[in-house]
Amino acid sequence: MEIKRINKKQAALFYFVVVFLSFLAPSFASHGDSSWPNKKLRLAVPQKSGRFSELVSINPDLRTNTTIISGFCIDVFKAAIAELDYHVDYELIPFVNATGQRNGTYTQLIDQIFFQNYDGAVGDITITANRSLYVDFTLPYTDLGVGMIAPKGSNNMWIFLKPFTTDLWLSSAAFFVFTGFVIWLIERPINDEFQGSMSQQIGIIFWFSFSTLVFAHIEKLRRNLSRFVVIVWVFVVLILTSSYTATLTSMITVQHIQLNSKENYIGYRSDNSPITNTKGVISNLNFKNTNLKSFTSTDDYANALSRGIENGGVSAIIDEIPYIKVFLSKYSADYSMVKTIPNTNGFAFVFRKGCPLVPDLSRAIAKLREDGNLNMMENESLQLLLLPSSTVVGFTKIGMS
Q1: Is pLDDT at 138 greater than 70 in this prediction?
Q2: What gap in Å lies between CA 66 and CA 9, rounded to an integer?
Q3: pLDDT value of position 77
Q4: Pairing mode, if any, of strands 120-121 and 90-95?
Q5: Where does this protein have coiled-coil stretches (predicted)?
């Protein structure tokens, strides 16, 4: 059988085709079919009905007969689109009915994208495993998880001082100094480590006594009497530290129990929809259902927290971190976020399965986060402060927007 050889012209042509396709490969990988970049994307925007408008706001302009869509989520989307190397033609369409009210729940919005009535959605939409079966999400552009809002007085930053009374703190400090002085008095005549200038000797007294608190004293003791004093004192320090740890743990545990007691009520966000009205953002919390109260706005949060459980309010509010940041941008003087748990995956932009825009937008969001532009937009849009975090209560699975 004769083997047909490839001549030089055919080889050159084959090489040219391979090089040409290699240049086109990134474009195919990024944009999919050639008709996609010319398509105008129809992106739904969920209506917040005036609540948490800092995230998404849809306002009709009667003078120009147009609809103004704004908010932090919209700003992030526009900034991510601007980071792309190619132009994307899109239209933001309010997800509302004929009366201007929301046209369904967030789950129904996801269904509309799955059935290709929209190409995607832009707004405060949380990533969930179930939703990922039907649509594609970009990288999250907000903080992950949920948090708890409580009055600042209920989260005393000086709680670490409460296990001991003032008299016990003062007595303990006095005995620390007294023990150091006794050791210095015994060791000074024969031990060079306890000699020197007056300031050095005073320093060694304080250093030696307080170093025993963590059993870190390194000075060598020459006399048995000083060693005996240290043995007794270390035993006392061990009792003090053990008692302090146990008391502090008990105090925090009592706070946990109080928040889940029958007398306490926990608030959560409800969107007043047929599906989410009973649970809101909370699903399977370790609180009794009878102790849960739903609210719809930041003003409702503040009103319920200020009234307290004695006047029909709540002890704390549980919500996703972006909503908590909106609340604290208005009421940070009286309330703080006292707990964060990464139980949710944050907000992201939604597109139909297989949309080639998703990886490109994800890279754009990552670049915005790396450059610090996300934090800058958050501060400008929401006028937020950095949020403190401390331990108050644990809770489990959280439902999402």
Answers
A1: yes
A2: 61
A3: 93
A4: unpaired
A5: none
Angle CA(227)–CA(231)–CA(233) in degrees, nearest 5?
A: 115
- From the list 127, 94, 51, the residue with the least C-alpha distance to 326 is 51
- Locus of tokens 């929209």: 118
Q: How many helices (H) and strands (E) does the chain have?
A: 10, 12
Q: What is the pLDDT of residues 281-290, one digit of tens each?
A: 455 455 555 5
What's the rounded mean pLDDT across residues 119-141? 90
> What pLDDT, in 10s, does the model give residues 74-114?
999 999 999 999 899 999 999 988 777 778 888 889 999 99
What's the gap between Cα 4 and its chain centre? 67
Q: Which residue has the tokens 């992030």?
A: 76
**Distance (Å, whole) CA 138 – CA 360:** 9
- Cβ within 8 Å of residue 64, ≥6 positions away: none
How many Å apart are CA 316 and CA 297, to the nearest integer? 15
Q: Comparing C-alpha atoms, which of 305, 307, 333 is closest to residue 319?
A: 305
Task: For residue 335, give the 3-state DSSP assignment.
Answer: strand
The answer to whether the CB of 266 falls within 8 A of the CB of 309 is no
- Sign for the pseudo-dihedral over CA of 174, 180, 182, 185: negative
pLDDT tens figures, 192-231: 777 878 888 888 788 877 777 776 666 777 788 888 888 8
